[in-house]
Design goal:
With 120 residues, the chain is of the alpha+beta class. The protein has one domain: Aspartate Aminotransferase, domain 1 (Alpha-Beta Complex), CATH 3.90.1150.30. Helices cover 37% and strands 25% of the residues. The chain has 4 helices and 6 strands. A 6-stranded antiparallel sheet has the order 1-2-3-4-6-5, with helices on one face. Strand 3 and strand 4 form a beta hairpin. The radius of gyration is 14 Å and the shape is globular. This is MmcQ/YjbR family DNA-binding protein.
C-alpha cells in the first residue's frame, strides 16, 4: 500500500489530524490529540506503527511474522509495526487502523468523546 492511500484512509476518520512532530520522515495521525498511527515516510516498503490490544498483537505477530512486528521505538506490548510490502491485505491494514483508532478513542475522556461525536 502506498502512503497516499493510507493517508487518505486515516484523515477520512472523524476528528483526525496529521502532524510531523518527530521530523519530516514520520507522519503521525492523531484523534483528539492522541496518536493512533505513525507512518515512516523514509522506509521502503512503507512501515506503519499502530496501537493494538496486547493479546491480539501477539496473535498477529505469530500469523504474519515477517510483516507484523513489535512496534519500532514504541511500547512493544501495545504497538505493532506493519511492513506494507503487499503481503498484508488492504482489508487487514484498514481493520488494524480502525482497531488502533478505536483503542485511542476508548481512552479519551468523556468530554473529548462527546466533542468528537459532535464533529461534522
Amino acid at each position: 500500500m502506498d502512503i497516499e492511500t493510507y493517508r487518505n484512509y486515516c484523515i477520512g476518520k472523524k476528528g483526525v489530524t496529521e502532524e510531523l512532530p518527530f521530523g519530516p520522515d514520520n507522519l503521525v495521525f492523531k484523534v483528539m490529540g492522541k496518536m493512533f498511527a505513525l507512518a515512516a515516510l523514509d522506509e521502503v516498503p512503507l512501515r506503519v506503527n499502530l496501537k493494538c490490544a496486547p493479546e491480539r498483537a501477539l496473535e498477529l505477530r505469530e500469523q504474519h511474522e515477517e510483516n507484523i512486528l513489535p512496534g519500532y521505538h514504541m511500547n512493544k506490548k501495545h504497538w505493532n509495526t506493519l511492513v506494507m510490502d503487499g503481503r498484508i491485505g488492504k482489508k487487514l491494514i484498514f481493520e488494524l487502523t480502525d482497531h488502533s483508532y478505536d483503542l485511542v478513542f476508548a481512552g479519551l475522556t468523556g468530554k473529548q468523546k462527546k466533542k468528537l461525536r459532535n464533529l461534522e
